[in-house]
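Whiteboard transcription, Tuesday session. T.W. wrote the structure tokens on the left side:
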């Protein structure tokens, strides 16, 4: 089987989740650069791969796929390497629940509502919208508590093994924890602090750090 191809940029949270999955499976891949934030939007032919103009898109042996959750499950099931989904039905359901939580609440709140406001905007000469940050910090605190309650004393988010859920969540936390607010809020949850120190040292995480 040919190596898969990931289309996207290394700064992207969702591209990183796919790359983390490939790295953890030990699957070689090619990253083809697509910048969705370029002036004028993504290249027109990219929309044939991803009609919503989002990254990543994915191709394996002629099979094209988009939507990160679908891609990472495909990668886990199509390739050899450690299984990254729980075999237990309820643990797997819990993992999928957390992935949905990160999509619906984590990414917009922690990345756009806090990281982009606090770090990206000022870096580009803009002003942080403090009211927006405050509003999102309340939401982030709710999410952190929910994650911490679901995780309990396990080393990984859904139990004894690292799964896709940890990878999906780590990509969002990597940006959130660059902010002073993120670093403060997580301290209310020692199990998440321990989880972050565990996952942030993994080779897959180190190998997929954004270059810019
Ligand atoms: N539902 C998509 C979301 C992907 C997504 O939002 N990617 C971001 C980059 S991290 C993007 O392409 N943003 C471009 C935009 O918002 O126009 C997935 O799961 O793959």
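and on the right, the sequence the group agreed on:
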């Amino acid at each position: 089987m040919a190596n898969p191809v990931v289309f996207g940029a290394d700064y992207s949270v969702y591209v990183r989740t796919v790359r983390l999955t490939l790295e953890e499976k030990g699957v070689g891949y090619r990253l083809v650069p697509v910048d969705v934030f370029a002036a004028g939007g993504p290249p027109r032919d990219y929309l044939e791969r991803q009609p919503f103009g989002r990254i990543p898109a994915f191709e394996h042996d002629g099979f094209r796929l988009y939507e990160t959750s679908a891609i990472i499950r495909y990668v886990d099931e199509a390739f050899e390497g450690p299984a990254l989904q729980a075999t237990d039905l309820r643990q797997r359901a819990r993992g999928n629940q957390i992935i949905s939580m990160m999509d619906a609440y984590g990414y917009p709140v922690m990345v756009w509502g806090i990281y982009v406001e606090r770090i990206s905007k000022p870096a580009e000469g803009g002003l942080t919208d403090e009211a927006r940050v405050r509003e999102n910090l309340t939401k982030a605190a709710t999410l952190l508590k929910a994650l911490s309650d679901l995780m309990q004393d396990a080393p990984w988010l859904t139990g004894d093994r690292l799964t896709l859920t940890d990878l999906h969540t780590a990509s969002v936390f990597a940006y959130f924890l660059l902010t002073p607010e993120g670093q403060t809020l997580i301290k209310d949850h020692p199990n998440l602090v321990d989880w972050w120190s565990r996952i942030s040292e993994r080779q897959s995480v180190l190998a997929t750090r954004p270059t810019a």
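Someone added at the bottom: The chain is about 55% helix and 10% strand.
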